Amino acid sequence: MSFYDTLRHFADSYALIVMFAIFLGLCAWPFRPGAKAHNHQAAHSIFKDDDFRDEDHGE
Hints:
The protein starts with a helix and ends with a helix. It has one domain. With 59 residues, it is mainly α. The longest helix has 15 residues. The protein has 4 helices and no strands.
């Protein structure tokens, strides 16, 4: 069996399983129990300096 065939066999079987497991882990990552506060902070971080900018520009 050549090196190419060995790599192809690995990619067709084990690598596919590993990539699928990584995909599932990344999909589940935002829904873990401790992520709620971090997700809320990230979602509202763009509004953090709104009050400061309004006072400076008189808007």
